[in-house]
Design goal:
alpha/beta, Glutaredoxin, 5-stranded mixed beta sheet, two-stranded antiparallel sheet
Length: 186
């Protein structure tokens, strides 16, 4: 009897692990909670990839925008790039790139090969802004409202489902709120 009980322990552990795996199948790791949701985007000042201009978070206030962290060294960034391009081409939101820990020449070559969907490309050579944003790894994407508040974060590759089910409804909601705030009542 004792031998049977001992033999059942590994089987019980295995079954327990299978149950846990099955229970977590619908949890998406790309939507990680962020302590920055609902808070202003951390301050930054970065050069842009194609000019000597330096931009800060204040340069993007006034309308919602999407900050997409990418690098030429990132295979997943290449995978999501057509979706970032398609989203930018809708004209529904300004898409800003944050080129993270990349050489300018490599980023330029990558963008020439895959296309440049970005309104602006900020260069984060040291990775300080990425650290302040709590970036785990590229790609990551942040939806930021017109006041500069982080509304939503995607850690990992953007998918069509995330764009359709999360980003576009949030963008529509932000635009509606912005339009309603601009109206005056008699």
């Amino acid at each position: 009897m004792k031998k049977v009980f001992i033999a059942l322990i590994p089987l019980s552990v295995f079954i327990g692990l299978i149950v846990l795996l099955y229970a977590n199948l619908n949890n998406h790791s790309e939507v990680l909670p962020s302590p920055l949701i609902g808070k202003p985007i951390p301050t930054f000042e970065h050069p842009t990839l194609y000019s000597n201009q330096r931009l800060t978070q204040d340069d993007f206030k006034g309308q919602p925008w999407l900050l997409n962290v990418f690098g030429s060294w990132c295979p997943s960034c290449q995978y999501e790039h057509p979706l970032v391009t398609a989203l930018a081409n809708t004209g529904q939101i300004k898409v800003v790139g944050l080129n993270w820990k990349d050489e300018s020449e490599d980023a330029d070559r990558w963008l020439k090969r895959w296309g440049n969907p970005y309104h602006e490309i900020l260069v984060d050579y040291e990775g300080d802004t990425a650290i302040n944003l709590g970036v785990y790894g590229a790609p990551e994407t942040f939806l930021i409202d017109a006041q500069g508040t982080i509304v939503y974060k995607i850690a990992g590759v953007l998918t069509q489902d995330i764009i359709q089910q999360k980003l576009l409804p949030l963008i529509k909601q932000m635009k509606t709120q912005s339009n309603n705030q601009g109206k005056t009542t008699p």
